[in-house]
Amino acid sequence: MLVDSHCHLDFPQLSDSIEQVVDLMQANGVGCALCIGVTLEDLPRVLALAEAWPLLLASVGVHPEATEVREPTVAELVELAGHPRVIAIGETGLDYYWHKDAPEWQRERFRTHIRAARQAQKPLVVHTREAAADTLRLMEEEGAGEAGGVMHCFTETWTVAEAALDQGFYISLSGIVTFKKALTVREVAQRVPLDRLLVETDSPYLAPVPYRGKTNQPGYVKQVAEEVARLRGLSYEALVDATTANFFRLFPSARSKVTQ
Question: What pTM value is reported for the model?
Fold first, then answer.
């Protein structure tokens, strides 16, 4: 069974075609997908998907790009993380691409999520873009390694990957790894220890080759896994076995929830 460790099925590009999305997942051997929360306002839609489909799970969090939304408290995130289909805190982190002024509110939001993850004992789903140094610094300062988690849709250098690995985090690769010019990501795909590697789609964005430019969906994580296996000189089956085992090791409650 293959796992898509990060997707956004509540987004309008996919929310009206969930049955077809699930059908393609099953046709491509994708037995589980983690649906990511990005705001508290939209969380009910994410939870509804996870409640309706046994192969879908959920996370709770407020994305670092989100403005003009309700800020979560530690207590609120911990309470929401108690939902039976929730296995992670996030998507959280830092994004200086859209916020060039590196706003302090973003850093405080990230700290809130890390504290909630430690208290709830749920792993973090971390987003970082043009903010690697601050992301790693805050993770270390707040003891993010106690909760563990994943650096999702990883696009940073191997040096950043090593630093995240040193804090106990996993590295997740998206369809970007299939882009021939994404040399930094493809190097990371070859060097991450096999027991710390995940694959994802980040759908509806970043569809892998040969679907690049189209709406992405969890069934296309197969193409991500195929390319990572090729880059590493592994069989597809070996890569699937490893990344799926890693997912359930990072999110130990997920297996029983998916098979219920």
Answer: 0.97
**What digits encode the pLDDT tens for the residues 24-52?**
999 999 999 999 999 999 999 999 999 99
d(C-alpha 56, C-alpha 99), whole Å = 32
* Rounded distance between C-alpha atoms, residue 221 and residue 208, angstroms: 8
pLDDT digits 0-9 by tens, 101-155: 879 999 999 999 999 999 999 999 999 999 999 999 999 999 999 999 999 999 9
Cα distance between residue 123 and residue 205, in whole Å: 23
Strands (E), 15-140: 30-35, 56-60, 86-95, 124-129
Average pLDDT, the chain: 97
What does the CA dihedral 116, 4, 129, 64 come to, rounded to 10 degrees?
-40
- Strands 197-199 and 170-173: what pairing? parallel
What residue spans of 62-131 are helical by DSSP H? 74-81, 104-120
Amino acid at 254: A
- Amino acid of residue 21: V
Helix, strand or coil for residue 247?
A: helix
210 alpha-carbon distance from chain centroid = 22
Neighbouring residues of 170: CB distance < 8 A, sequence distance ≥ 6: 148, 149, 150, 151, 196, 197, 198, 246, 250
Integer Cα distance of 192 and 151 in angstroms? 12
- Which residues is 171 bridged to in the sheet? 151, 197
